[in-house]
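User: quick one, sequence for these tokens?
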């Protein structure tokens, strides 16, 4: 287990890129990392490595029937794993990168283990240079919060280490989370819309975009 400082303002380009490369290598090797986002800290793994995803569930003590969210770096990567509709396009344009998770129809190559056998997958684009830097090198990674199941979300690295310990190979410390609250989760199916969890983006903001 290692902890690496990754506050962009405190590192040179070379130092920052080195940390990003090390974290990406951990993901590619099938290990777990904890990484910062603008909402809370996340625990990440390669979504296509089912052993790594299983280990992530076990590390969090998370029930296997609870789907995991996925983080991507841009709309193109999102479209590689999900089928976007008009409402999703509007929300992506308005809020991403940012604290919004969109639950939308997944493509067949996404392992059922990630989505708890669901035909849909929750996806977001984090608004954080560390998260974005890693994902650009690895492709989609798990985006669930870095805490034990039912424990408070981790808004700093110490909380994540306390909960997850040696189950995680690398912790990336960028200080306290900016928003300190999770993303809003919205479920889309055809023209149906449901806010599953109210987070940093309000219902009124979402409705204003969808009704425009």
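Assistant:
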């Amino acid at each position: 287990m290692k902890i690496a400082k990754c506050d962009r303002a405190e590192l040179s380009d070379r130092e920052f890129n080195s940390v990003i490369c090390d974290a990406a290598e951990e993901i590619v090797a099938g290990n777990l990392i904890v990484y910062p986002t603008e909402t809370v800290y996340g625990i990440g793994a390669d979504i296509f490595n089912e052993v790594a995803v299983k280990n992530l569930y076990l590390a969090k003590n998370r029930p296997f029937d609870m789907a995991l969210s996925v983080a991507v770096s841009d709309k193109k990567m999102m479209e590689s794993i999900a089928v976007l509709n008009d409402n999703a396009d509007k929300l992506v344009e308005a809020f991403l990168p940012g604290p919004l998770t969109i639950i939308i129809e997944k493509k067949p190559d996404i392992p059922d283990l990630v989505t708890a056998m669901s035909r849909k997958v929750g996806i977001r684009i984090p608004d954080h240079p560390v998260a974005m830097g890693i994902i650009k090198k690895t492709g989609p990674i798990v985006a669930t919060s870095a805490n034990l199941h039912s424990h408070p979300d981790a808004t700093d690295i110490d909380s994540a280490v306390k909960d997850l310990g040696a189950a995680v190979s690398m912790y990336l410390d960028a200080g306290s989370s900016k928003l300190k609250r999770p993303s809003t989760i919205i479920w889309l199916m055809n023209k149906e819309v449901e806010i599953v969890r109210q987070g940093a983006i309000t219902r009124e903001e979402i409705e204003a975009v969808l009704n425009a």
